[in-house]
Design a protein that fits this description.
single chain; about 375 residues; alpha+beta; Immunoglobulin-like; 3 domains; 6-stranded antiparallel beta sheet; 5-stranded mixed beta sheet
Length: about 375
């Protein structure tokens, strides 16, 4: 009975400890808290039969271990275990001090164990023994979040692969408008490299000022995050979780580097159709943006209408797609394939309007090949 009482008390300690940031207890430290085991000797006033009977009521050592193991997983202390030096991975970058526009900045994540090992180590569920799973990654500049994503890995990539290569920032944005861009080719991205799009956005817009900065990369396991934890896109949120690998390098922005990247950008002005499409583009460009800081710089519709009818065959409206270049507080962007509609009036069509939202408020981390940063020099 004493063992059970101590174990139950420790469960409470573990749960409170996990809430207050306490480190995990070990089985050995727990056992040291238990009362001394009975010896083989029998007190003079107690018969051997009585001693055996009382012993049978005590919890066995294996029972205590089972109780503690359950407490560790449920109380959250397991999630706070730190890696040993032999378990810790590392990022190897092509430069330890890098100037944007000078070359490609590439990185290699080297792990001594497979990604599965880390999820198994911190597993919160009854089992994490699967042949697919996730590796979490985070990138920041001067403690400002740039990108955070879950890399889904399957088969051998999850259970056996220990090295992952990827591009942090290319010398030019070649291929930026297609999923097949060279910098998107990595097992860590499905399907596109959020880091590249975000950094290009910060550089082209000038929101990342000239001078030295600190670029940080971190890999961690989602299993280290306590259940029911609210997600925040803040550096303080990502700093809480034990890292599998982490590094910081000097990241330098110069006028020369920024101008070189803008000059070599594959961005270009939109191409406009003639005829009725001139009036359509003009009407769309004059659309309200909802904020003085958001401006429509250019609109180019595609030259194909699709007529939409109801179940009786009556025309409701026609629709097409348009590409838009806009300016927001984040800089200049190109958003492709926005839905445009014209309602049918009975004798013709009304004023064209955007039937999908232009994403002025999307931060750098949300960009991709259909919504991408562009240097103002190439699109105005």
């Amino acid at each position: 009975m004493k063992y059970c009482i101590v174990a139950l008390n420790l469960v409470a300690v573990l749960i409170l400890g996990s809430q207050n940031g306490a480190h995990a207890f070990s089985l050995d430290s727990f056992k040291s808290m238990l009362p001394p085991a009975k010896t083989d000797s029998t007190p003079q006033n107690e018969s051997p039969q009585q001693n055996d009977a009382s012993s049978s009521k005590e919890a066995s050592s294996s029972d205590v271990d089972a109780i503690l193991s359950s407490a560790l997983s449920k109380g959250g202390a397991k999630q706070k275990q730190v890696l040993s030096e032999t378990e810790r991975g590392r990022f190897v970058l092509s430069n330890t001090a890098f100037t944007a526009g000078s070359n490609d900045l590439t990185a290699k994540l080297e792990l001594p164990q497979s990604p599965k090992f880390y999820n198994m180590k911190w597993c919160q569920a009854s089992s994490c023994d699967y042949d697919n799973g996730y590796l979490e990654l985070y990138v920041s500049v001067d403690n400002m979040p740039v990108a955070a994503w879950s890399a889904k890995l399957e088969g051998a990539d999850y259970t056996g692969t220990k090295t992952f290569d990827f591009v942090v920032l290319p010398k030019t944005d070649a291929g930026i408008g297609v999923v097949e861009a060279p910098f998107n080719k990595s097992k860590l991205f499905q399907p596109e490299n959020a880091v590249v799009y975000a950094l290009l956005d910060l550089i082209y817009s000038g929101n990342l000022k000239n001078g030295p900065h600190k670029l940080k990369l971190k890999a961690y396991s989602k299993q280290t995050i306590p259940l029911n934890t609210a997600y925040e896109f803040e550096d303080s949120y990502f700093a809480k979780w034990p890292s599998i690998a982490e590094t910081t390098i000097d990241f330098i922005i110069t006028n020369e580097g920024r101008n070189t990247m803008a000059r070599n950008s594959s961005a270009k002005k939109l191409s406009h159709a003639t005829g009725e499409w001139i009036a359509i583009d003009k009407a769309l460009k004059s659309s309200a943006t909802g904020s003085a800081e958001n401006q429509l710089i250019d609109v180019a519709t595609k030259t194909t209408w699709k007529i939409i009818r109801n179940s009786l065959g009556a025309i409701l409206y026609r629709q097409c797609k348009a590409d838009v270049i806009y300016k927001s507080k984040y800089g200049y962007r190109l958003q492709k394939g926005i839905l445009v509609k014209q309602n049918y009036t009975g004798s013709g069509y009304g004023t064209p309007y955007f039937a999908e939202r232009i994403q002025f408020a999307h931060g750098p981390s949300l960009l991709n090949s259909t919504h991408l940063p562009v240097p103002v020099e190439k699109v105005r």
